[in-house]
Amino acid sequence: MNTMDNLEKQLICPICLEMFTKPVVILPCQHNLCRKCANDVFQASNPYLPTTRSGSLTSGGRFRCPSCRHEVVLDRHGVYGLQRNLLVENIIDMFKQESSSSKPEPERKEETPMCDVHEEEKINIFCVTHGVPTCSMCKVFGAHKDCEVAPINSIYETKKTELSDGIAMMVGNNDRMQGIISQLEEACRAIEENGRRQKTLVCEKFDHLYSILEEKKREMSQKVTAEQEEKVNYIRGLTRKYGDHLEESCKIVEKGIQTMEEPEMALFLQNTKPLLKKIAEASSTAHLDKVERGYENMDHYNVDFKKESKALRGIDFIEDDDVEYEEDEAGEVEAEEGEGAQTVSGGSAVTAASVQPTPPQQINSSPSAAST
């Protein structure tokens, strides 16, 4: 008998808590369910999938095994695509035959509760009005004489059925909630993935903007550097000319001092004439260029990025979903070289500073208008 009891426990469906009814389907995790119970769980776990008039789902879905919580994925055939467990069905048939042929067990004497008011009376009826079990004496002479009563066995079967249906409904609701939780978790994963993808796109847009700014900075710096080198080379060349003139003047001065020491008057007069001519030539700097006042200044390369800074701070996402923006590399280069404007994806325009350096000031060779 213990063996039969253990066998019966193995043949109980975890959904309806009754012995498996044909057909019995076997899940991928090797657990068994009644096909009807499996279909109920499947529909409860996929509340958003369309169904036919008969209540079966029209497309594949998934649910969890009530025994081990393993996720079962079904195709468009639903639970009808699961394999039948013929071995379990045969065992159920053999068990029912063995149970019907065996001798009935002696009835166990169950202790019947007694009435609290009439201690010698058994509780054998049910008061429908108050919803409590009672005895016949209470119905005839007691507190329930004016109440509606019913046989306790019929109420017992009704309540047991209600309780069983409630448990089955709760199991179905739990599986349905588990399905909703799975769908919400999947939505969270999709949101995170979409967020990572959009952040990558935003970073790429900003990197492209950085590259444009770096290129523009390099171009403007090269302009300043070019004029700087031009002016420095000119000043250094002029410095060398003045140095050569100074060296020549020092030699003439030294030659003049030596001539002053000449005691012979005739020889002194012979050397004085060419020396005086050289002194006159060396005293004149008319042939040397002069630098205008302020030639060393580089203030004409002044820049002002107030408008561009305001535009950059106004960068934001496009609010109109119908606006489609495509970057044109050739157009960007043309805009940078021509209009000096760059359009960013946030809908704001960043205008590059139109810096037009003045050409180097012309050298004035007039001694009266120059200063060294």
From TrEMBL:
Q: Which GO terms describe its biological process?
A: cell differentiation; regulation of microtubule cytoskeleton organization
Residues covered by the COS domain:
260-318
Question: Which SUPFAM superfamilies does the record match to this protein?
Answer: B-box zinc-binding domain (SSF57845), RING/U-box (SSF57850)
Q: Please indicate if the UniProt record lists Signal as a keyword.
A: no
Q: Which domain of life is it from?
A: Eukaryota
Domain B box-type residues, every copy: 110-152
Location of this chain's protein in the cell = Cytoplasm; Nucleus
In terms of CDD domains, this protein maps to: Bbox2_MuRF3_C-II, RING-HC_MuRF2
Q: Where is this region: Disordered?
A: 321-372
Its Enzyme Commission number(s) read 2.3.2.27
Q: Which residues form a coiled coil?
A: 174-230
Q: Which UniProt keywords apply?
A: Coiled coil, Cytoplasm, Differentiation, Metal-binding, Microtubule, Muscle protein, Nucleus, Transferase, Zinc, Zinc-finger
Which InterPro entries does this entry report, sorted A to Z? COS_domain (IPR017903), E3_ligase_FN3/SPRY (IPR050617), Trim54_Bbox2_Zfn (IPR033492), Znf-RING_euk (IPR027370), Znf_B-box (IPR000315), Znf_RING (IPR001841), Znf_RING/FYVE/PHD (IPR013083), Znf_RING_CS (IPR017907)
One example GO MF annotation:
zinc ion binding
| UniProt biased composition (Acidic residues) | 321-339
Q: Where do the RING-type domain residues begin and end? A: 13-69
Its recorded reaction(s) are: S-ubiquitinyl-[E2 ubiquitin-conjugating enzyme]-L-cysteine + [acceptor protein]-L-lysine = [E2 ubiquitin-conjugating enzyme]-L-cysteine + N(6)-ubiquitinyl-[acceptor protein]-L-lysine
Q: Which GO terms describe its cellular component?
A: cytoplasm; microtubule; nucleus
Asked if the record carries the keyword ATP-binding, the reply is no
Pfam families given for it?
zf-B_box, zf-RING_UBOX
Composition bias (Polar residues) maps to 342-372
Role noted for this protein: May bind and stabilize microtubules during myotubes formation.
In Swiss-Prot or TrEMBL terms, this protein is called Tripartite motif-containing protein 54
